[in-house]
Amino acid sequence: MKTSLVPSADLSAQIAANIRDAIVSGALIVDERLPSEAELALKFDVSRATVREALKRLAAQSLIRTQRGATGGAFVNRISFEAAQAQQITTSTLLLSMNDVSFETACEARYALERACAPLSAMRRNSNHINVMRDEIKAQGEVELSDEAFCASDVAFHRALVDGAGNPVLSYQLAGAVEAMQPLMNMITFTARSRDAIIALHVAIADAIEAQDGPAASAGLTALEAETQTLARRVFAQRKGHTG
Amino acid sequence: MKTSLVPSADLSAQIAANIRDAIVSGALIVDERLPSEAELALKFDVSRATVREALKRLAAQSLIRTQRGATGGAFVNRISFEAAQAQQITTSTLLLSMNDVSFETACEARYALERACAPLSAMRRNSNHINVMRDEIKAQGEVELSDEAFCASDVAFHRALVDGAGNPVLSYQLAGAVEAMQPLMNMITFTARSRDAIIALHVAIADAIEAQDGPAASAGLTALEAETQTLARRVFAQRKGHTG
DNA sequence: TGAAAAAGTAATGTCAGACATTTAAAGTTT
DNA sequence: AAACTTTAAATGTCTGACATTACTTTTTCA
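^ inputs. structure came back:
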C-alpha cells in the first residue's frame, strides 16, 4: 500500500481510495484481513473515527465486510454477481431518473442489449427458462392485473430470456438495463388492447427461443421494441394534451 | 422518510438504507439538502459519529455530496454518466477477477453486447467516431507498441464504436463490459502475426461502420470474437504446457 | 455612500477517550 | 472428556471538544 493520494479531499476518502487501489490491484486478495482499525489509524496517522469512515465507504461498495469479535476485523470481500447486480440496478435506476433520459433512448438501449442475448439464449436455454417465460405470459393475461404487476411480470419474462443465454456476465450487465427501465415503464398505463399486443409478441419470442430460432427471437424483440415505443409515444402525447 | 429498517445490521447501515430509499423513491430530490448531521442524529436517536458513517456510505455510492461551511451540508447528488461508469468499471473489473470468470465467458459477453451497438453505430456514427477508429488502428500498427498499450488502444477503438451509436445509456452499459475485460486481455501476449489479424478485422469493422453497413459490422465483430477466442486458447494452452 | 475588512455563525472534518457488545480461544471445573 | 467460565481482541457506539470552512452580517474607513 502506498500512503499518499489525491490531496484536498477528506482524509477518509483518501484512505478509502488507498485501500481500494490495493484491492483492485490485487495487493490485497480475497478474504485477506485488513489491519485492525487501531492499526490503520496508527499507520495513516489519523483517528480511529476517520479510519472507520473510510472502511464504511468501502463496505458500501461491497469491497470489504466486517466481523466483530476477537478474530474479527475487515476482510476483502469476494464481490458476488448478486451484490454487483443490486448495486448496478440502484445506480442505473437513479441515472435514468435523474438525467432526463428519454423513454425512447432507454428503451432503445434495453432492446438492443436484449437482442444481443437472443441468439445465445435460443442456443442454450433450458426447460426452466421456457417454463418461466410461459408462466409469466400466462400471468400477464390476467385481467385484474395492475399496471405495476404487469410491468414486474414483464421484467421477469425478460430476465428469463436473458438468463437463458447461460452467461452470468451477460445476465449481470443486462440486469441493470432491464430493471432500471421499470420505473419508466410504470409510467405507462396499459389498456387491455395494448396488453394483448405485447402478450402476443411475448408468445412469439418464447416460441422462437423454444424452437432455438435466434433470428426469429431477435425479430420478435425488434417488433416488441417498436410496439413499446409506439405505445409510449401515444401515452405521453395524450398526457401532454391533457395538461397543456 | 420512514424510521425503521433491517434490524440486526449496523445502525449506520440501517440509516444509510433509510436515506437511500428516500432518494431512490424520489422523496428526496436532486440537490435537496439533507438535515444537518446533528439533526439527523437527533432524528434517528444516534450519535453524530454514527450518522457520519451512514453519510459516508452514501457518498461512496455518489448518492450525496457534502459541502462545508455555514450553508453547507449533505446534498442529494445528481449521478453523472461519468461517475456511474467509473463505479461500474470498478465493480465489473473486480467481479471478473474475483469470480474465476473464464476468458471465454467474458469475451462472449463483451462481443455480444458490442454487436448490439453495431447496427445503431453504423446508422448514426459521425466523422469523429470514424477518425478515432482510424487513428487507433494506425496506433495499433506501431511495431514497438507494448501489449498493454495495444490493449488500451483496442479499448479506445471499441469505445468509439460503441459511442457511435449515440445512445448514452448504451455507452454507459458497455463501458463496464469493455473496460473490465482489459485486465484479462492484458494477460495475452500479442505476436506480430496475431496483431496483424486483429488489425485487419478492425479495418473491416471501421469500413463497415463508415459505409453504414450494420450487418457487415456485426459480422466483423463476430470474426474478431472468434479470432480473440482462438488466440486466447492458444496462449493459455501454451502457458499450461510450460508450467505443467 | 460604498467598498473593503472584520466579526459572527453554522455547518462539516477531525480527534481523543470511554464504554458496550460480540466472538473465539484459553482456562477451569466437574 | 465435556461443560462452563474467564479472558482478550476486535468492532460498534457515544460524548464532547476543537479545527476548518465558507457564507452572512456588521463594522470600519476612505
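The CA atoms of residues 166 and 221 of chain A lie 19 Å apart. Residues 10-12, 46-50, 53, 67-72 of chain A lie near DNA strand C (CB under 10 Å from a C1').
thumbs up if we can close this ticket
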